[in-house]
Design a protein that fits this description.
Distance between the termini of chain B: 18 Å
Number of strands of chain A: 2
Helix content of chain B: over 70%
Shape of chain A: globular
Radius of gyration of chain A: 25 Å
Structural class of chain B: mainly alpha
Largest interface: A-B, 50 and 42 residues
Largest sheet of chain B: none
Structural class of chain A: mainly alpha
Strand content of chain B: under 5%
Oligomer: heterodimer
Radius of gyration of chain B: 22 Å
Number of helices of chain B: 11
Order of helices and strands of chain B: HHHHHHHHHHH
Number of helices of chain A: 12
Distance between the termini of chain A: 23 Å
Largest sheet of chain A: 2 strands, antiparallel
Chain lengths: 333, 281
């Protein structure tokens, strides 16, 4: 038993190593393409700095460029950037006066909290609605859920966020519309948790609606497809209760496509969180990206693209692992 | 099964949601083409007093914004950006995706490996963040946003076409075309493309809906072409007056919603008409 456990542990380690080696060229390409793209951008960080200072002589500007290494040929800058990347150093952010890597890592937890809560809400409500729609197929309940899902697809999430702010924040004053916690009160313990939760309601819901729509549709069609299969008929013939069949047999199989879609959609969700974090002044990586654009902090922007692409890759690997765990017939290759 | 085209048209025209989508899209397209005839003048110029609520003055049925620009004129002219981006970005993505997908599936080997590496590249980068990088790097204009959205959308088409071509590659009619000496280009263009067209059309309507939403988000963030009015930029400027005049952000959003809703209804209808056996699911 322990030997088998050890060997499957090795297999997993081998699998993870192979996957990570496979993504290295992709990550290098991402950095390369975007590095040269951003070098084409009009104006660099020195322009922003001297602009903020009310202009500077060409000599001062040249000195600053020399200091930041911007006077060197582009290929040399690129080699330097790649060299630094080996030690996870994503360069220096002049706008924040700090290294890019720690700035981004400081923002990741807030983004993960926002996205994790959105996925959780979307899965719970989406699966529930999908199960109900499948059970009441063809009735008005099914139609209402269907219409809600179609609307959820078509709604621009930033617009939904603004409308939710108008209704629940400005008019009803139920939830705050800005920030992650109340900066004027120094809250601790449960009061702090409650405060953060209240700040999360609107951004989480705005981000979740689109995925909620997808999940309810997928669950519905997977439930209908699975329930027609032989092993379900067998379970029914065995005399299992309908609830037990729905939960243990049908739902478990219907969850597989949900896992796949969640993994595939993480990139889109990272993009969505740029917009949502900007609207709600949420202190995450998306808001940081927005700030980086307007400060012309291109190093920071490139770092954010790199880290978020890496998160997508991690999510894909985790998806495959969860998939293999849910469906033992799938073998990790 | 009824022969191709007539069966498809019959199934499509009996789908009321799909017909609603088609009619609405045609209407919106006509409005955007005739924008200068219905509402002549620059939609970005000031037309009256600011902060006029919808329905209060007959000269401004949908009111005016923070600067006093007419909102109805803005929505009518703004439809152009949405439709142009939706149409051209989709066309770009479909052409690029079909070409690369067919090459990958047809030739296999290192061609396939290289193209799939590109697919992976664009599917790994979060599309909105990559679009932002492109908009920041090049000048914020309509062609730039079309390029950026097209670049992030083609992998979907390429993957689909590749799989179909792999299936068709060994089909008898392809082998026959090879035997009688058809060139690779000719086989791909005249034998493979017509067979994948129906699936691509369905994907295209989804890409167009996605492109319109992406363009709106970019313009909303203030990264679009500053000289062109778009629904996204109208919502962005309306955001500043959310407390006192929420209608400024609400109305252009309804326009986006209706357009994307029609496109996805159209896409669903096409899908059901193309795959009649999947329709009852």
């Amino acid at each position: 038993m322990s030997a088998a456990g050890a060997s499957s542990g090795f297999r997993l380690l081998g699998y993870l190593t192979r996957r990570l080696i496979h993504v290295i060229p992709t990550m290098l390409l991402i950095v390369g393409v975007n590095f040269f793209l951003l070098k084409m951008a009009p104006g660099d960080v020195v322009d922003v700095l001297t602009g903020e200072a009310g202009g500077a002589t060409p000599e001062v500007a040249a000195m600053l460029r020399q200091q930041f290494g911007l006077d060197q040929p582009i290929w040399l800058q690129f080699m330097k950037y790649m060299g630094n990347l080996l030690t996870l150093n994503l360069g220096y952010s002049v706008g924040y006066n700090d290294f890019v890597t720690p700035i981004i890592f400081e923002r990741i937890p807030a983004s993960l909290l926002l996205m994790g809560a959105s996925i959780l809400i979307a899965v719970i409500i989406g699966v529930l609605l999908g199960v109900i729609a499948a059970a009441r197929r063809g009735t008005w309940v099914d139609n209402v859920i269907n219409i809600m899902a179609v609307w959820g697809f078509a709604m621009p999430l930033f617009w939904l966020a603004l409308m939710l702010i108008v209704l629940f924040s400005l008019t009803l004053r139920w939830f705050p519309a800005s920030g992650m916690y109340n900066v004027y009160q120094n809250l601790h313990g449960w009061a702090y948790v409650r405060d953060v939760a209240a700040h999360m309601v609107l951004p989480v819901f705005s981000l979740a609606v689109y995925y909620l729509a997808i999940f309810s549709r997928i669950t519905r069609s997977a439930m209908i497809e699975v329930s027609g299969q032989d092993f379900i008929r067998f379970a029914r013939a065995k005399g299992l209760s309908p609830q037990r069949i729905t939960i243990r047999h049908v739902l478990r199989n219907a969850l597989l496509p949900i896992v796949t879609i969640t993994g595939l959609q993480l990139g889109a969700m990272l993009g969505g969180s740029v917009v949502i974090e900007t609207i709600f002044a949420w202190p995450g990586m998306g808001r940081l990206a927005f700030d980086a654009i307007f400060r012309r902090d291109l190093n920071l922007l490139l770092g954010i693209l790199f880290i978020s692409s890496f998160l997508v890759i991690i999510a894909n690997i985790v998806t495959d692992l969860v998939y293999a765990w849910l469906d033992p017939r799938i073998e990790l290759k | 099964m009824t022969s191709g085209w007539t069966g498809f048209a019959r199934r499509f025209s009996h789908n009321s949601a799909a017909m609603f989508g088609l009619v609405t899209i045609v209407l919106i397209a006509m409005i955007s083409i005739l924008a200068n005839v219905i509402f002549p003048g620059d939609p970005l110029s000031i037309a009256g007093a600011p902060f006029i609520w919808p329905g209060t003055e007959s000269a401004f049925p949908l009111g005016t914004d923070v600067l006093g620009r007419d909102i109805l004129t803005g929505i009518v002219h703004g439809s152009r950006v949405s439709l142009i981006v939706g149409l051209t970005a989709t066309l770009f993505a479909v052409l690029l995706g079909m070409t690369l997908g067919a090459l990958a599936g047809y030739f296999g080997g290192w061609v396939d490996a290289a193209i799939m590496r590109l697919v992976e590249l664009f599917q790994t980068m979060p599309s909105l963040i990559f679009t932002i990088v492109v908009m920041v790097s090049l000048t914020p204009s309509l062609p730039t946003i079309v390029l950026a959205i097209g670049l992030t959308s083609w992998p979907q088409v390429a993957r689909l076409v590749r799989v179909e071509v792999l299936k068709l590659r060994e089909a008898e009619f392809i082998l026959a075309a090879e035997v009688i000496g058809g060139s690779n280009t000719r086989i791909i263009l005249t034998h493979l493309f017509p067979n994948v067209a129906s699936i691509v059309v369905v994907t295209a309507s989804i890409i167009a809906a996605h492109a319109i939403l992406l363009e709106a988000a970019i313009s909303f963030l203030g990264l679009g072409d500053p000289n062109m009015i778009s629904w996204g930029s109208m919502i962005g400027s309306g955001k500043e007056a959310l407390r006192s005049a929420w209608y400024m952000a609400a109305l252009p959003g309804v326009a986006i919603f209706v357009t994307v809703l029609s496109l996805s209804a159209l896409g669903n209808g096409l899908n059901d008409a193309v795959h009649p056996h999947g329709a009852h699911k």
